[in-house]
């Protein structure tokens, strides 16, 4: 029987052993190299990143919101200020059970569901480590209640904050505007770094228009915390930079006079300093209290404002579009003189109505029996409609549009306030484009007395009046006089932006007629002249709310108040040294001479008396 013997091969075994040793050595070298490379990365390349992560285990970055700039009137009275208050705020990442915490806080401090919902919306917009306010303007009693149970509410604390406050309530609400909490839409477009720690943004008025100046620059603190995330030490601080303070041209005393003088009427009053373009009065009645909007107005309160038939949120001075009525007559008369289609002494007979050739329809004058023979001076002084029907037909709608456009009728004045509307000065092209219709001669006639399609804002009327008093110098109206910060001061406005080429004699004739409106024996605002020692140039206006049929008679006492005519008045004074221009609209006031003119008179008188008292 054969046997097989295994023959040992020492050389092969040695080679195998050596190869395994080499492979193991190479593997060890690779592992050591990998370890070295990792150590190099951790210690050199990734040092800053990992040091930051390590630091964040005990260091938190807390944003420091800047103090918002203060808004003053022209005499340095605060229209928007920052007042200290207590705010209950939560940091969600430090709270284990947010719903339970909110439920306990709700019972403790009697927090409404609406406040809880508002907090939840705000929380979702912020980072989880950001402090989000739940309640603002805490009373001392609420602060004391929470202080007792504070250890049982980790991640919840009371902070002393500065909150926006508007001391004049509804008086300046439409001018100054208000700040409110940043909403989701705004959050998508706002630079996050700029609004760190800030939950509010300007929503309307000066607060919105000059947001960039008022906001300031955020700072931050590096805070050392313990295991319970409580602050134990401030490591470093970068101070915030406060927003710029803004001084307005507005005079709050004159604003109050205008607001109170409107009294029972909704409407608006605008007064402009003629030489500078500074807006002295910008009143819209009714107003509203802007303070509830700062901390979050309740749905019930907001709905009441929105649904009110008086529309208190509506800025009539800036956005109210009204038929200007007879207040356009001085400008159309000037157009007639400038285009050479009539003369100041041209006379025509007013029988109380006007008829187009070969047309039976009668375009009525406000005075049933007519004014008899009138020239341009008489027509402006007595507000003769027939004269201006005839002048409008002679001018034609396109010339009327072109001339009135120079005075900002039908376009924005450029005031430094967001939300201004254009108004409307119609033309053939406008009607063709927007109505797909031809223009009719009868529409030219009613445009000549400021009716029909014509729409103007109180601001446009005041601006046009100031431009006329300035003999065609156009100064853009502005509300901000100066912007003051720690490192600069910027003065706004005051220079002529354009010059309408007008013949001085023509302007003087129009001003003469407007002066007779107030001081002439047959002027429609004659009662205004009784208590003043200077001269006012003005023009009354009455704007129809609804159209009266051909054979019907307007009876103010027989119709509902809301269907009565609007009362308008434009004016400037003193005539020989124009300083202030005013436009008044009293909704459903009926008569410009009896309702709107006295309001203008109060504003003008108060302003000129101020100037007189200020003289050494």
Automatic annotation (TrEMBL):
Subcellular location, record wording: Cell inner membrane; Cell membrane; Membrane
TM segment ranges: 21-41
Protein name, entry field: Peptidoglycan D,D-transpeptidase MrdA
Native source species: Methylomonas albis
Keywords, in A-Z order: ATP-binding, Carboxypeptidase, Cell inner membrane, Cell membrane, Cell shape, Cell wall biogenesis/degradation, Coiled coil, Hydrolase, Kinase, Membrane, Nucleotide-binding, Peptidoglycan synthesis, Protease, Transferase, Transmembrane, Transmembrane helix
Family per similarity comment: Belongs to the transpeptidase family. MrdA subfamily.
Catalysis: reaction(s): Preferential cleavage: (Ac)2-L-Lys-D-Ala-|-D-Ala. Also transpeptidation of peptidyl-alanyl moieties that are N-acyl substituents of D-alanine
Annotated HAMAP family: MrdA_transpept
InterPro entries on file: Aliphatic_acid_kinase_CS, Beta-lactam/transpept, Beta-lactam/transpept-like, PBP_dimer, PBP_dimer_sf, PCN-bd_Tpept, Penicillin-binding_protein_2
PROSITE patterns named among the record's database cross-references: ACETATE_KINASE_2
Job of this protein: Catalyzes cross-linking of the peptidoglycan cell wall.
Coiled coil spans: 95-122
């Amino acid at each position: 029987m054969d046997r097989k013997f295994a023959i040992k091969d020492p050389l092969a075994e040695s080679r195998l052993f050596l190869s395994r040793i080499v492979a193991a050595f190479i593997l060890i070298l690779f592992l050591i190299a990998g370890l070295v490379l990792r150590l190099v990365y951790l210690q050199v390349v990734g040092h800053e990143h990992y040091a930051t992560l390590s630091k964040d285990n005990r260091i938190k970055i807390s944003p420091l919101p800047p103090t918002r700039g203060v808004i003053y009137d022209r005499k340095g009275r605060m229209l928007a200020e920052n007042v200290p208050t207590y705010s209950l705020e939560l940091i969600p990442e430090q709270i284990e059970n947010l719903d339970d915490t909110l439920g306990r806080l709700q019972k403790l401090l009697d927090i409404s569901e609406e406040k809880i919902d508002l907090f939840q919306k705000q929380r979702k917009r912020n980072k989880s480590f950001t402090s989000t306010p739940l309640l603002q303007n805490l009373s001392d009693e609420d602060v004391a209640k929470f202080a007792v149970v504070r250890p049982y509410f980790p991640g919840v604390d009371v902070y002393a904050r500065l909150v926006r406050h508007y001391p004049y309530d509804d008086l300046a609400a439409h001018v100054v505007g208000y700040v409110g909490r940043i909403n989701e839409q705004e959050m998508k477009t706002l630079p996050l770094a700029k609004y760190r720690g800030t939950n509010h943004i300007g929503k309307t008025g000066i607060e919105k228009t000059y947001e960039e100046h008022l906001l300031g620059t955020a700072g931050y603190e590096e805070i050392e915390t313990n295991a319970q995330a409580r602050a134990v030490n401030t490591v470093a601080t970068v101070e915030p930079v406060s927003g710029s303070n803004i001084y307005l041209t507005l005079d709050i005393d004159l604003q109050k006079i205008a607001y109170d003088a409107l009294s029972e009427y909704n409407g608006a009053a605008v007064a402009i300093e003629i030489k500078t373009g500074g807006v002295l009065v910008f009143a819209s009645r009714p107003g509203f209290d802007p303070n509830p909007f700062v901390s979050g107005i309740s749905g019930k309160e907001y709905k009441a404002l929105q649904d009110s038939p008086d529309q208190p949120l509506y800025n009539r001075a800036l956005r109210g579009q009204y038929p200007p009525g007879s207040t356009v007559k001085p400008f159309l008369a000037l157009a007639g003189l400038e285009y050479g289609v009539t003369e100041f002494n041209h006379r025509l007979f007013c029988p109380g109505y006007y008829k187009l050739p070969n047309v039976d329809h009668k375009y009525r004058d406000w005075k049933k029996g007519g004014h008899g023979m009138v020239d341009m001076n008489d027509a402006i002084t007595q507000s003769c409609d027939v004269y201006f029907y005839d002048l409008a037909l002679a001018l034609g709608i396109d010339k009327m549009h072109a001339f009135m456009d120079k005075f900002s009728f039908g376009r924005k004045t450029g005031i430094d306030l967001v939300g201004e509307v254009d108004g409307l000065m119609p033309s053939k092209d406008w009607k063709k484009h927007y109505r797909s219709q031809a223009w009719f001669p009868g529409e030219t006639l009613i445009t000549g007395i400021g009716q029909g399609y014509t729409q103007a804002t109180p601001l446009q009327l005041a601006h046009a009046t100031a431009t006329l008093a300035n003999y065609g110098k156009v100064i853009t109206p502005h509300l901000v006089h100066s912007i003051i910060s720690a490192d600069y001061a910027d003065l706004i406005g005051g220079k002529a932006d354009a010059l309408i080429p007008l013949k001085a004699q023509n302007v003087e004739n129009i001003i003469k007629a407007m002066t007779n409106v107030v001081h002439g024996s047959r002027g429609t605002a004659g009662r205004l002249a009784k208590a003043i020692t200077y001269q006012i140039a003005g023009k009354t206006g009455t704007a129809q709310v609804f159209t009266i049929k051909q054979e019907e008679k307007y009876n103010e006492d027989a119709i509902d108040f809301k269907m009565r005519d609007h009362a308008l008045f434009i004016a400037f004074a003193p005539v020989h040294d124009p300083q202030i221009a005013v436009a008044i609209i009293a909704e459903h006031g009926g008569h410009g001479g009896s309702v709107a003119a006295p309001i203008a008179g109060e504003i003008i008188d108060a302003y000129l008396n101020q100037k007189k008292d200020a003289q050494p």
